[in-house]
Amino acid sequence: MTRFQSCLYALFFLLLSGAEGGDLLKPDDRIVFIGDSITGQGGRNESGWVALFGAALQSVDPDNLQTLVPLGGSGQTVGSWGNVERKSRDNSVFLDIKTYDVREELGQPADVVVIMLGMNDVLSAGLKNTPEGIEKWKSQYRDLIRGVRERATPRVMALATPTPCTEDPYSPKNIVMDQMVEALKSLADEESCIVLPTRDTAWEVLKRGRMSKPDFHFVSDQVHPNSAGHAMIASGMLKGLGETAAAEAMYQRALEKGNALNPGALSYTLVRQESEAISEITRFQLKVYHQDGEPNFELPDNWEITLGKTGEGYSDYDLSARLDREINRLTIRSGEQSKEVTIPAPWLVGTGNAGRTGWKSNVFDFEVGRLASDETIRQGIGFQSGPPELHLKEGVPLVWKTFVGDINYGGAGHPDVIDFAQVTYFTLGETGYGLRWVYSPIDRPISVEISRPGFAGNSAVELWLNGDTIHAGDPVKAKGRTYPAKLRKGWNLVSFKSNFWQWQWQLRISLKSAEGEALDDLKYSVFAL
Fold first, then answer.
1. Per-residue pLDDT for 20 more than 60?
2. Are residues 129 and 174 in the same domain?
3. Domain residues for 288?
């Protein structure tokens, strides 16, 4: 498309849509939604966001009888959807909902086309975290827009910003997605499209939800929407299309479905403060939402909390904690209300990418992939006061961080789960190590369980206990198996190496009593003691 053609589209769009909110959609519009599994799930039934989108429009005006066509495909990226569009010109293509043939649906006019893609570009680790990678993504998106526009000739072409990957706005994945959004906005301007603020709406709903419910979520697995998330997406779509009343109804539905419509409830958010120094003390910012007077706290020994900023209905605190138990607890009280905050014991995690050594297709060979740093991690050599300087290969240092399980990631803060999305924007072939020391007051037999908690992914893991190999292989195949082992009296080293290939990168390591009793007497540290 030439620049002149783009200008004509822009003029045509402005003449038809006008500048007033609510003028973009017409009651008999045929609206085609292009996307990935989020769109596929959203169009399956009446509880999905596509149906909610239509129901919200009808609740505002019964004359709204738009035809909604969800073309969502699991695993689709911007580039792969471009392939779908090109293939469907001559062939039938069916995605998640088999009643819709892409060839047929794009081969007839659409009044409105909405595209929401980008999640799988970062989730699959196919998009490189570089300016060149973002520019390539933008170019592929441009090709898709032009291909769809040529066939469906829509009056309105809208680009919905991708919903978050994890519920942490500062996660490595979301930082890259924010860069993608800026590229998308630029592309929309260049190609005469409008932008739908689905991503901004997600953050607004999450913030509002956490103000009355500390474990409010809009996703079920850090990617796909739950019932609150479906309403949230519908709200963002409607808002961008100028349907203010319908958007507000869906916004309220999102909070209602997440059980977060009680602004007077005691609630909180907990955010770990990043530090380059590895320390036994972990620092957090604790924001408490309250209505019944200044909160007070029940803290474990050796924890400190200091009041920072206060405002109407909230107080900010700086919290310093020694996380030496598998699950560490503090209690917040305000008036007659109380909330227990749980924080898991930390891991020391190191990551880097030395290439795909050891991988053949998507199968990892542990001997071929052996690195010099493996032995250091296996035995925990040199970790008395922090991690030693290690390189996967020349010029590729391991980057170490203290990992504390977080409600916004896989496992939702479970003490056994490590989600590497919390520490790195990983790409194909990345290597990750983890260590923690566990103190047992007695010798005792235990069982070890290993699995991958995420919904998709390919990785390989080698787990060591006091230098002995417990498991080496695919964590998915290990699920359901129990490995017998022993904790000796004193400090024990639990360490692992994980090799990543594609999609989510998560690992679950559980130490359980072989005799059925609780292991409440264990202590934890990220230092060799």
1. no
2. yes
3. 267-343
